[in-house]
Amino acid sequence: MSHRLIDKGLGYIDIHLLMSAILTGAAIWTLDRRLNETIQELRLPNGIGRKA
Predict the structure, then answer these.
(1) What is the structure's pLDDT at 7?
(2) What was the pLDDT predicted at 49?
(3) What residue ranges do the domains of the chain occupy?
(4) Distance between CA atoms of residues 37 and 52, nearest Å
(5) Rounded to an integer, what distance in angstroms lies between the CA atom of residue 46 and that of residue 15?
(6) For residues 5 and 15, is the Cβ–Cβ distance under 8 A?
(7) What is the pLDDT of residue 51?
(8) CA 12, 49, 10: angle at the middle one, nearest 5?
(9) DSSP conformation class of 21
(10) pLDDT mean by block of 10 residues, the chain; 52 residues
(11) At CA 45, angle to CA 42 and CA 48, rounded to 5?
(12) Which of 13, 36, 44, 47 could link 29 by a cystine bridge, Cβ 3.0 to 4.6 Å?
């Protein structure tokens, strides 16, 4: 899986959350616009437990 996460305005903790979700399939609940856009781009489960 090759995704460019640099220059998206995400911080270290955001990247850590994304990587944890990728590895475990866990959903991320967030109100952060940039993080939510990246979650949708990566097609990770959103806070409702569905694919974004």
Answers:
(1) 76
(2) 47
(3) 1-52
(4) 9
(5) 15
(6) yes
(7) 52
(8) 15
(9) H
(10) 71 92 92 91 75 50
(11) 140
(12) 47
